[in-house]
Design a protein that fits this description.
The complex is a heterodimer of chains A (161) and B (474).
Chain A (H helix, E strand, L loop, with lengths): L8 E2 L4 H12 L1 H16 L5 H28 L1 E4 L3 E6 L3 E8 L3 E7 L2 H5 L2 E8 L3 E8 H14 L8
Antiparallel strand pairs in A: 1-2, 2-3, 3-4, 5-6, 6-7
Helix pairs in contact in A: 1-3, 2-3
Chain B lengths: L4 E2 L3 H26 L4 H25 L1 E5 L2 E6 L5 E6 L3 E7 L2 H6 L1 E8 L8 E7 H12 L19 E3 L2 H9 L2 H15 L1 H4 L2 H14 L1 H27 L3 E4 L3 E6 L5 E6 L3 E8 L3 H4 L1 E8 L11 E9 H11 L10 E2 L6 H22 L5 H20 L1 E4 L3 E7 L3 E7 L3 E9 H6 L1 E8 L6 E9 H11 L4
Antiparallel strand pairs in B: 1-2, 2-3, 3-4, 5-6, 6-7, 8-9, 9-10, 10-11, 12-13, 12-18, 13-14, 15-16, 16-17, 17-18, 19-20, 20-21
The chains are: A alpha+beta (161), B alpha+beta (474).
Chain lengths: 161, 474
């Protein structure tokens, strides 16, 4: 009956903070571009309008990616690990649900960048021979436990490829 | 048995050719240098020194390359500067194929390719030239472990194995309807017969006048000759590549030999087959012909020939069932399909194919209104394509096999086993959710990491059904 109901588990709540921080850091790029545009406008005297328009666009973009999207994204993200399969749901506008049979799992990784580390989170990546699937933010211990559990479950005899 | 053996000296030629081919790129700067002020004789000298070094190197590496069978293992020693010893255990060997190029055939030699499981190709071993008997001996020696496929020797074809060989007539038909020819054909058809319809009259008149002054008969004749030449070329490549195509089913593997000039062998273990595909291209479909291929995981098959491996170049549609029942009875092959895509999804299909032509139409209508007929035709064709795609997409679900009928341009029937599907994904956007539609993505494994089948906008009910079918959890 799976794939009819969404998976049960949510990812760590701090994911929102981590994503917000990441998005804020990314928004440095539009800021730099705005500065560059104004400097260029000053030096080569072309219109300041380009810079102004760009400010408006990047403002909207920053508000969306920093304030709204992380929350929505977290809200949609669900996963569930069964004995024989892994079930993942994600996506804001387009909601995807993925089912990965345990016997297809080739390896599981946990990863932690500086931002995730700050919040004590790590991400978990499940790879099959043809696809990879990531659960983006789990509490460190939880991720490690899940990784071990999946790799244990995936150990069941692999019949070729 | 255990004494180390060398390859046939002809192997030196292969090494030289191979290294020279790589060297050509390195020689370019020298040649460019020569064309400036550097003396030509210096260049010749440098090149000949390099060639001599390479030949010397090839001889040395031939001297160093030895192989032997020791018990259950094949041992290969090689390397001039860095010595390398490789041991491959019999149990690890997935397949051994003997391939004969033209040079091989002249000297009665064969190339032996030994494939092991896993995607790391550097682990696989190859003996570039040994005597044919020696190759067959090696084949039997190393393979005896899992099956008695002694029938690699052409003479003793066993009668109890299912076998299909392509007839010359079929081969010619396959060549004349091959995809590359189809493209050429439609291009020519477009330019020759329809040119009047969608070229503005003034332009058409001017061009025809120009052509008439050149002698239009001559041009037409030239065009026809070119067309026939291209067609012949298509047929010829097909005949050379797939001449004497024979497929044999053994207990655990398929064995294919093909090639008129270069004789190629291929062994496909049944358990490495990930999906079977029956394809009817736009030209072949109305004629009632189809091509059968399989997706294989891992191993080195036909590097240059994309991911799919041909099981048979051309079959009449009515023969497909019989062929598969004999060659791959593991796969059910029934022709009853149920439509997957409900009527309410039709707009998505039409929009998807006609979006880009529509934008093109608007653009051209604004900037070059006299050419507007072209994008209109294109738009019409893309709407038809969208509709046909919508009509074609259907499925059949049995206990452990999903059969999909799809169309990009060619109609394709894909037979998938549930345990071969690597992951199943369904996605819906907000409009989909309102309309109870959803998109499905099935991933399978092949030589190129994976192939993904996308089926757009199906009934949510069917999505659920396929999800349940795939899920092993109860």
């Amino acid at each position: 009956m799976y794939m009819r109901q969404p998976p049960s588990e949510r990812i760590a709540k701090d994911a929102i903070k981590a994503w917000k921080l990441t998005a804020s850091l990314w928004s440095c790029i539009p800021i730099l571009i705005v500065i560059a545009l104004f400097v260029l406008a000053y030096l080569f005297d072309f219109s300041y309008w380009y810079g102004t328009i760009f400010i408006a666009i990047s403002l909207i973009e920053v508000i969306l990616t920093v304030i709204f999207i992380p929350k929505l994204r977290w809200n949609r993200w669900r996963y569930e690990v069964f004995d024989q399969e892994i079930y993942i749901q994600h996506g804001i506008l387009i909601v995807s649900r993925t089912l990965v049979p345990m016997i297809r799992v080739q390896h599981v990784d946990t990863k932690q960048g500086p931002i995730l580390k700050k919040y004590g989170l790590s991400s978990l990546t499940v790879s099959t021979a043809a696809t990879t699937h990531e659960i983006p933010a789990l509490l460190e211990e939880e991720a490690a436990a899940l990784r071990d559990r999946i790799s244990e479950l995936a150990r069941v005899e692999q019949d070729d490829v | 048995m255990s004494s180390p053996k060398r390859l046939h000296p002809v192997a030196i030629i292969f090494t030289v050719i191979k290294s020279l081919r790589q060297l050509i790129y390195a020689l370019f700067p020298i040649i460019i240098l020569a064309s400036s002020d550097f003396g030509l004789h210096y260049v010749v000298l440098i090149i000949s020194i390099i060639v001599v070094i390479f030949i010397g190197f090839s001889v040395l590496s031939w001297l160093r390359f030895t192989y032997r069978i020791e018990g259950d293992q094949l041992r290969i020693e090689k390397g001039v500067i860095v010595r390398q010893k490789r041991t491959i255990s019999k149990n690890r060997i997935q397949s051994i194929d003997l391939t004969q190029g033209i040079i091989h055939r002249i000297f009665g030699l064969t190339k032996v390719q030994i494939e092991t499981a896993g995607s790391d190709r550097s682990v696989d071993a190859g003996l570039s030239a040994v005597k044919l008997e020696e190759g067959q001996h090696l084949h039997n020696e190393l393979k005896s472990k899992y099956e008695n496929v002694e029938s690699v020797v052409e003479s003793d074809k066993q009668t109890n194995h299912a076998q299909h060989t392509i007839t010359v007539k079929r081969l010619l038909l396959a060549g004349s309807t091959s995809a590359s020819f189809g493209i050429v054909l439609s291009l020519f058809a477009l330019t020759f017969t329809e040119i009047e319809a969608f070229v503005p009259e003034s332009f058409y008149n001017r061009t025809t006048n120009l052509l008439l002054s050149q002698g239009i008969e001559l041009l037409i004749v030239l065009g026809i000759v070119l067309f026939i030449l291209l067609w012949m070329l298509g047929i010829l490549t097909m005949v050379v590549k797939y001449g004497k195509f024979t497929i044999t089913r053994y207990e655990n593997e398929l064995f294919i030999t093909r090639g008129l000039l270069e004789k190629k062998q291929m062994t496909i273990p049944i358990k490495r087959i990930q999906a079977v595909s029956i394809k009817e291209s736009l030209i072949r479909q109305p004629l009632g012909f189809a091509t059968i291929s399989v997706e294989i995981a891992g191993g080195e098959t036909e590097k240059q020939n994309a991911s799919e491996t041909l099981l048979f170049p051309l079959l009449r549609k009515t023969e497909v069932k019989g062929f598969l029942d004999e060659i791959l009875p593991e796969y059910e092959n029934n022709s009853t399909f149920r439509k997957l895509v409900p009527k309410r999804a039709l707009p998505y299909y039409l929009l998807r194919t006609s979006m880009i032509p529509l934008i093109g139409l608007i653009g051209i209508a604004i900037f070059m209104p006299e050419w507007v007929i072209l994008p209109i035709i294109l738009l019409g064709l893309s709407v038809i394509l969208g509709f046909v795609r919508y009509r074609t997409t259907s499925f059949n679900l049995s206990e452990n096999q999903l059969t999909l009928q799809l169309r990009m341009f060619s109609k394709e029937i894909v037979l998938l086993k549930s345990k071969r599907i690597q992951a199943l994904e369904r996605s819906q956007h907000f409009l989909h959710r309102k309309q109870n539609l959803g998109t499905m993505k099935l991933s399978i494994l092949n030589n190129f990491g994976g192939r993904h089948y996308n089926i757009n906008e199906l009934n949510e009910e069917d999505l659920d059904k396929i999800g349940d079918w795939y899920s092993t959890e109860t």
